[in-house]
């Protein structure tokens, strides 16, 4: 009998059951069992773990696993908690996730380009005041991060007529996008973009990257969209720049603490839009198909998909 696949999560019981059903439907020849339902022998025999924010102790209780498949695209917490001795980790790379993220980037870029925050404020004040229309071609969007998600977002933005430039820690190419690297490149993108969209992974290099000083180098009236990780942005510095009106608005979907405490001042800040980490939710059906294909390939060829580079953190 083929060894079981361990499904290791900190989900609620009902949510875990829903995921198990979808995964099992995508892999009818496999036995996928919740970690909590595995016998001691099954825990010893399991060769693969599918995980979603797992308890590190549960993963450590699976001594025979050859590799770990994450259901999320972001793996910085997984890498940090499991440590260097953990088996190879495969993160989810799902075209549907890229499509949804690109959709969110375009939607909230439109939100800023069409002055929606200002119109919301005017409505609250019963103020009828049309604002000058800015054509997308007048707006430069700086993408921080030009990986799979960044390239998908850049394509949607360019199709909509926005001027797009990008920065990341390594060289990348995409037709129509001027790409920068290094400290000078970051300064160039920040200082010449009307809207900055952050899609960077959280690593040792990107943690705290967007300091108050760097954010202050953005043009007066520029805005920020953070769909990456909260720890990349100096939140206190951002608030100071919004209060002084150097920056116009921030759309924040990610935070160092989630969910936000009800007393957090970000909720009530007039120049911040708070989203509950919804820019690119994982689609269970498409994610399960990706996981199933990766497992089938490994079963038949012994070849792993691209695994996480632990030094880089993604």
Keywords:
11 helices; 314 residues; alpha/beta; 7-stranded parallel sheet; 16% strand; 5-stranded parallel sheet
Secondary-structure map with pairings?
Blueprint: E1 5-9, H1 13-26, E2 32-34, H2 40-45, E3 48-52, H3 56-60, E4 67-70, H4 76-82, E5 89-90, H5 95-113, H6 116-124, E6 140-144, H7 148-159, E7 163-167, E8 178-180, H8 182-191, E9 195-198, H9 212-216, E10 222-226, H10 235-243, E11 247-252, E12 272-274, H11 284-301
Parallel strand pairs: 1-2, 1-3, 3-4, 4-5, 6-7, 6-9, 7-8, 9-10, 10-11, 11-12
Helix pairs in contact: 1-11, 5-7
Task: Describe this protein's structure.
This protein is an alpha/beta fold and 314 residues long. 36% of the residues lie in helices and 16% in strands. A seven-stranded parallel β-sheet has the order 8-7-6-9-10-11-12. Strands 2-1-3-4-5 form a five-stranded parallel β-sheet, covered by helices on one side. Helix 5 crosses helix 7. The radius of gyration is 22 Å and the shape is elongated. It starts with a strand and ends in a 13-residue tail after the last helix.
Number of strands: 12
- As a percent range, the share of strand residues is 15-25%
Instruction: List the secondary-structure elements in sequence, H or E.
Output: EHEHEHEHEHHEHEEHEHEHEEH
**Overall pLDDT score:** 96
Which class best fits the helix and strand makeup?
alpha/beta
With strands numbered from the N-terminus, the spatial order across the biggest sheet is 8-7-6-9-10-11-12
Number of helices: 11
Indicate the low-confidence ranges by residue numbers. none
Helix content class: 25-40%
Main sheet overview: 7 strands, parallel
Distance between the termini: 34 Å
Shape label: elongated
Radius of gyration from the alpha-carbon trace, in angstroms? 22 Å
